[in-house]
């Protein structure tokens, strides 16, 4: 289990949710079912001239109007106070923030999205990444880059016996605790979280320790060592015989994808992986040990 998250004393909103509140106010409605956790669930609230009354108390219209003007931000709201969900990394110096979508929020690092949002939302992106791993029931899974935890959470939902997941950036860990869609990380005994550099941590794992590996590193420019032959050999070492790997790379048909993918495939094969296949729909390649 990940370290416990702080008790939630605020609601979490983006422009997508507050638009419904403002429209209901303008129609002079007194009640509304709306999401107060970025679309994860719905709650009945009351509308008054002062604001919106929900489980955590009054949310002022001034705070709601502030959120409505920001199309991509996600905000924690308590009374008349709202703050954008973002954190400056003490390790990388990059600003990490939540980016609102029609599903779970995406992770934004210094202006670079870590999830797909065109044509799919991050939840659908997670499904595409896990599909090449086939059945996860009873499997031991390694998720090399936690991010907001979506793949680790979904792998557990699909029946994985255990999921080891590792996050490098403490700013991203901060956002996990603030993001309603990441909370299952903190509630499952079968999800084991680590913090640090997976390139170092992987050396602590035993040979053949995992049946499935989801390798979803940052872009090559930010994490070149996680695309290298030495790291691929470590992935092969800890993956059980006939185990499956999915390596997220990015759009295979983009200029950067066309440049990066041939080298990735060659190094995976040199590390001992077989049956390396392209998955353009999932923006990555799969392989077997």
Describe the secondary structure blueprint for this structure.
Blueprint: E1 11-14, H1 15-26, E2 31-34, E3 43-47, E4 51-54, E5 57-60, H2 61-68, E6 74-78, E7 81-84, E8 86-88, E9 95-99, E10 106-109, E11 112-113, H3 122-130, E12 140-143, H4 150-157, E13 162-167, H5 170-178, E14 191-195, H6 198-201, E15 210-215, H7 229-238, E16 239-248, H8 255-270, E17 274-279, E18 284-288
Parallel strand pairs: 12-13, 12-15, 13-14, 15-16
Antiparallel strand pairs: 1-6, 2-3, 3-4, 4-5, 6-7, 8-9, 9-10, 10-11, 16-18, 17-18
Output the keywords.
289 residues; alpha+beta; Rossmann fold; 2 domains; seven-stranded mixed beta sheet; four-stranded antiparallel beta sheet; 8 helices; 18 strands; 26% helix
Order of helices and strands: EHEEEEHEEEEEEHEHEHEHEHEHEE
Q: Tell how many strands the DSSP assignment holds.
A: 18
The total tally of domains equals 2
Helix/strand class: alpha+beta
Q: Portion of residues in helices?
A: 25-40%
Strand percentage lies at 25-35%
* CATH architecture designation of the largest domain: 3-Layer(aba) Sandwich
Level-1 CATH class name of the largest domain: Alpha Beta
The coarse overall form would be: elongated
> Could you list the spans in which at least 5 consecutive residues all have pLDDT below 50?
none
């Amino acid at each position: 289990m990940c370290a416990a998250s702080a008790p939630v004393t605020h609601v979490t909103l983006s422009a997508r949710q507050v638009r419904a509140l403002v429209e209901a106010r303008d129609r002079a409605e007194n009640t509304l079912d709306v999401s107060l956790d970025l679309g994860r669930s719905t709650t009945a609230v009351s509308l008054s001239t002062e604001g919106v009354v929900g489980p955590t108390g009054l949310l002022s219209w001034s705070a709601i109007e502030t959120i409505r003007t920001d199309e991509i931000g996600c905000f924690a709201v308590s009374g008349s106070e709202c703050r954008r969900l973002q954190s400056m990394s003490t390790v990388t110096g990059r600003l990490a923030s939540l980016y609102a979508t029609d599903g779970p929020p995406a992770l934004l690092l210094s202006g670079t999205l870590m999830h797909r949002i065109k044509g799919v939302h991050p939840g659908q992106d997670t499904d595409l990444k896990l599909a090449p791993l086939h059945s996860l029931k009873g499997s031991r899974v390694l998720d090399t880059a936690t991010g907001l935890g979506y793949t680790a959470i979904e792998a557990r939902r699909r029946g994985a016996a255990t999921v080891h997941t590792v996050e490098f950036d403490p700013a991203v860990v901060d956002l996990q605790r603030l993001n309603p869609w990441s909370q299952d990380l903190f509630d499952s005994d079968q999800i084991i979280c680590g913090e640090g550099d997976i390139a170092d941590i992987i050396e602590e794992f035993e040979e053949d320790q995992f049946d499935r590996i989801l390798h979803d590193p940052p872009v090559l420019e930010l994490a070149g060592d996680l695309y290298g032959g030495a790291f691929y050999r470590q992935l092969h070492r800890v993956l059980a015989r006939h185990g499956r790997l999915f390596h997220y790379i990015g759009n295979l048909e983009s200029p950067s994808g066309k440049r990066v993918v041939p080298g990735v495939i060659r190094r995976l094969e040199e590390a001992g992986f077989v049956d390396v296949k392209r998955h353009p729909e999932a923006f990555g390649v799969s392989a077997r040990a």
